[in-house]
Amino acid sequence: MHRNTNGRKFIRIAWAGHAVFAVTMISLGILGLIRGNFAPIWQPVPKSVPARDVLIFLSALISLASGIGLLWQRTAATAARVLLAYFLLWLLVLRVPLIFISFTVNIWWASCQTAVMTAAAWVLYCWFAADWDRRHVGFVTGDNGLRIARVLYGLALIPFGLAHFIYLQVTADLVPGWLPAHVAWAYFTGYTFIAAGVAILIGVYARLAAALSALQMGLFTLLVWVPVVAAGANASQWAEFVVSWVLTTGGWVVADSYHGVPWLALGKLKARVCRNKA
């Protein structure tokens, strides 16, 4: 923990991913307030959803406030709690039911995006859980909470990989021109997402799998979407860039949750939660 000249306490940064995730949430909140619409990570939201305009403002406000709160000692636990609750509600109310109504790629892709962010928020909640959380909802904190978060993340990665095969040519067309064998790269990235998801679920090389999956999403952001944005992206491409970056930060947080676990560990090891003692 650090104290500034005004005496206000700022949170000790848990991991690098924690800081990047918090700043990303702040940016999403600002983006939502400026545009007066859902930031890309919250999309799609059907026009028929009740109080849609209220949800737009609420999503932006929670993103902004939670991001700031995650960086401040006194509010970190509350910020993580609120962000997890909001992502979880978004997943259960606006994502999962649609899978049973219309099982299309766009629907379950959006569900997996929300699952990644829910997993990241859950990891941070386990990190910052206060005494109240451990007394009243201990079953979703600590080691058990980390296991739930990692399962969510692992499950989300598998459909990401499958989508590469369903949209094989679209994925291949996104591969930078200076790389050879575009279709082969599309197959490779699809298989690696699936392999990483399975590894995390069964606990075999889980830390390595989580780190490499986050790295892959980060490289996709850097090599595919950054050049597109630099060349003058349209609204859809800008949204893809934002989503890709946000998912990278979510994966980064989950990967950081394996701190202390051997890179090549076989079998399910006990999750390790580092708690803020300051």
Give a written overview of the molecule.
By secondary structure, this protein is mainly α. The protein has ten helices and two strands. The chain has a two-stranded antiparallel sheet with strand order 1-2. α9 (206-230) packs antiparallel against α10. It is globular. The N and C termini lie close together (7 Å).
N- and C-termini, Cα separation = 7 Å
Give the mean pLDDT.
Answer: 90
Oligomer: single chain
Strand % is under 5%
Write down the overall geometry.
Answer: globular
| Low-pLDDT residue intervals, each spanning 5 or more residues | 1-8, 274-278
- Please outline the major beta sheet: 2 strands, antiparallel
Tally the helices: what do you get?
A: 10
Radius of gyration: 19 Å
Helix content: 55-70%
Number of strands: 2
Strand order of the largest sheet: 1-2
Order of helices and strands: EEHHHHHHHHHH
Class derived from helix and strand content: mainly alpha
Quick structural gist:
The chain is 70% helix and 1% strand.
Which features does this protein show?
278 residues; mainly alpha; two-stranded antiparallel ribbon; 1% strand; disordered C terminus
List the helices and strands and how they pair.
Blueprint: E1 2-3, E2 9-10, H1 16-35, H2 52-69, H3 76-101, H4 105-128, H5 131-136, H6 142-166, H7 168-174, H8 182-202, H9 206-230, H10 235-256
Antiparallel strand pairs: 1-2
Helix pairs in contact: 1-2, 1-10, 2-3, 3-4, 4-6, 4-10, 6-7, 6-8, 7-8, 8-9, 9-10
